[in-house]
Structure formats: structure tokens, C-alpha cells
Amino acid sequence: MTNASAKDPLKILVYSDDANIRSHVILALGRRPHPDLPEAEYVEVATEPVVVQQMDSGTIDLAILDGEAVPAGGMGIAKQMKDEIFRCPPLLVLTGRPQDAWLATWSRADAAVPHPLDPLQLGEAVVRLLSSRVPATR
Predict the structure, then answer these.
(1) What is the pLDDT of residues 110-131, one digit of tens each?
(2) Distance CA 72, CA 125 (A)
(3) How does DSSP classify residue 131?
(4) If you write DSSP's letter for every residue of 13-80 in order, what string do you get?
(5) How many alpha carbons fall within 13 Å on the CB side of residue 5?
(6) Residue 12 C-beta-side C-alpha neighbours within 13 Å
(7) Can you give 88-129 as a three-state secondary structure string?
(8) Alpha-carbon distance 74 to 94, whole Å?
């Protein structure tokens, strides 16, 4: 866990070349994805080099990667991050459709949520990934 305490905001990276997808993810999760988690601070990223830079910083608690992004898809980035970052934070990949979940497995992502995004499914996946990393705020 990168946060010094449960009161520090969670730093969630949201990667997509599409600003609408980034916005949809952030709106779906809100400022606090769950009452037992700290508030979220979002880092919006549109390019692969900036994803790598942010992930290398060691300050990201969770990365949400759009598998349909171009030119670098989130699944390829997820595989690269798992291969290159010691104690890589959890990675959630947004897949093009539910049938693409097997590709997320190949990428070593910790979770996958298909397009079109369901805010409840996205929230449940994010809370599951973060709850094991962040001490309760209560």
C-alpha cells in the first residue's frame, strides 16, 4: 500500500485515450467508492508513456486501464506493468465485451469489467481490489 494512513486519499489512475471513458469511470466511482475506504484522487491519463511514468512513481493505489484504448491497449500495458513493477498495485482492465475476460487473464490484470460500463459492477470490482490493500477508516 502506498498511502501513509487510511486518511490519505486513494490515488486511482484511469487510462483511456477517450476522455468520455475516463469521465464515465470517475463519475461511476465518485469521490469515495465505499464508506470504509478513503476518498479517491483520480489521475487521468491518455497515453502509455504517462501510465508508465505514473506507475513507476510508486504512488498509485489502483490502475484502471481501458483495454480498447489506442494505440496502446490497457491489456498490453497491464501485462507490462505486472512484469516490470515489483509489488505492482492492483490493475483493473476494461474489456470490449464480457467474452474478452480471458484476455484480461492473459494480461495478469487483477479484475476485468466489460464495456458498456455498469457503475455497480465497476464499483464492486474496485472495492474488492482496494479493500485488501487499505486499512479501514473506521
Answers:
(1) 999 999 999 999 999 999 999 8
(2) 23
(3) H
(4) EEE-S-HHHHHHHHHHH-S-SSTTSPPEEEEEE-SHHHHHHHHHTT--SEEEEETT-SSS-HHHHHHH
(5) 4
(6) 29
(7) CCCEEEEECCHHHHHHHHHCCCCEEEECCCCHHHHHHHHHHH
(8) 8
